[in-house]
Amino acid sequence: MDNIQKYVEANKDRFLNELIELLKIPSVSADSAFKNDVLKTADAVKISLEKAGCDTVEICETDGYPIVYGEKLIDSNLPTVLVYGHYDVQPADPIELWDSPPYEPVIKKTELHPEGAIFARGACDDKGQMYMHVKALEFMTSTNQLPCNVKFMIEGEEEVGSVNLSTFVKNNHDKLKNDVILISDTGMIAKDVPSITTGLRGLSYVEVEVTGPNRDLHSGLYGGAVANPINVLTKMIASLHDENNHITIPGFYDKVEELSQEERAEMAKAPFSLVDYQKALDIDSVYGEKGYTTNERNSIRPTLDVNGIWGGYIGEGAKTVIASKAYAKISMRLVPHQDWEEITELFKSHFESIAPDGVKVKVKPHHGGQGYVTPIDSIGYQAASKAYEESFGKKPIPQRSGGSIPIVALFEQELKSKTILMGFGLDSDAIHSPNEHYGIWNYFKGIETIPLFYKYFTELSK
């Protein structure tokens, strides 16, 4: 690709400003209070694809938030790349922990980003990374260097499980027909250590409710005489791990793939400093399943974590009360071969079975998805590897991620094509957390690298 860096340099202020405008819209799919903002963001994505060079762009309605579909088809004899991304974002809570308002993007220099990083909800996950593809298309169409066909499918419900995208994919095989799927919703090891994500964990997300007495009770008059739902819930949750931090749900590990020592040795070659890891998180020790390293715990092993817990009185001052109900939200990250629906049912059966007398338990499944592994000998992976090597000056390292993109396994099942995960974020970007940010260098580097994937994928497909 000729003059990619020159094009980015000449347009970097505009590229940055366009992303900032997109980040100002609070497209929180989990909270209906932001419905109009989510819809507004879909319209903004549609306009950006039209300006970037798509010949056809449409907003496809679903039972939830719409999917923005666009395409630029130049020759039916050439391969087709399908780009997937999402325009919805996580809730910004807790707002008070942000150093600047989450929907008022600011650029600040950091130790890892001396050239600056954009601080805003969605900066890295996934508006910043999704928008790299829009600008990469703009470069290729405006300079007449698009080597193959391209389709875009940008959804607004990734952060709440992509339920309606599943239906859309199943009903639109012809529209979405492609030779490879390209996604930037992951990260890389470091700015000077490029990597390609080759595996994703699956996900099962549930909400539990423990009910005791039919109303809140005075803790003096009733304390010690009736089951306290909060006490019970915390004991039940604590029992879900043993002394080695293994998950105690019967059958949970039955289908977990045990990687060979050779595969684990290859993973261990990726640069990693435990000291720096602990320093970045301000912790004095790591924690997790016995017998596995930190990088193995957060990528090739399943997990169970409480994401939120509440009940009773949490306002200012004291209120001596035994709550009628207690709640928790729990997520389980799963590895390939673990079926998320089966795991959800195992959790439900086990959690209900360990409830003591005196309380009632409800388990409400929210959403989930399967894990995914992509082979490193595919044309798509080879094209991505060559693109990174040209852009970064070194070969990328294949790396399994601890995160989940539930829709990826469905893509292969329904569309019969492999997914390539070209992420440019960093672990320190605080996605899903206060002060989420995305390095300006990473943003521009992605725009420079993505067109090279198109070039090499087209060449290798001949």
Concise account of the structure shown:
By secondary structure, this protein is α+β, with helices and mostly antiparallel strands. Helix content is 33%, strand content 21%.
Description:
With 462 residues, this protein is α+β, with helices and mostly antiparallel strands. It is 33% helix and 21% strand. A hairpin with a 6-residue loop joins strand 1 and strand 2. It is globular, with a radius of gyration of 23 Å. The two termini are 18 Å apart. The mean pLDDT is 96.
Record the SSE blueprint:
Elements lengths: L3 H20 L11 H18 L3 E5 L6 E6 L7 E7 L19 E3 L8 E3 L7 H16 L6 E7 L7 H9 L8 E4 L11 E6 L1 E10 L5 E2 H4 L6 H10 L22 H7 L6 H8 L12 H4 L5 E9 L9 E2 L2 E10 L5 H14 L6 E10 L2 E2 L5 H14 L4 E4 L6 H9 L3 E3 L15 E3 H21 L2
Parallel strand pairs: 3-6, 3-7, 7-17, 8-16
Antiparallel strand pairs: 1-2, 2-6, 4-5, 5-18, 8-15, 9-13, 9-14, 10-12, 11-13
Helix pairs in contact: 1-3, 1-13, 2-3, 3-13, 4-12, 11-13
Low-confidence stretches: none
The strand count comes to 18
Radius of gyration: 23 Å
What is the averaged pLDDT score?
A: 96
Question: How is the main sheet built?
Answer: 6 strands, mixed
Helical proportion, percent range: 25-40%
Range of strand content? 15-25%
**Per the principal axes of the C-alpha atoms, what is the gross shape?**
globular
**How far is the N terminus from the C terminus?**
18 Å
Structural class: alpha+beta
Strand order of the largest sheet: 1-2-6-3-7-17
How many H/I helical runs?
Answer: 13
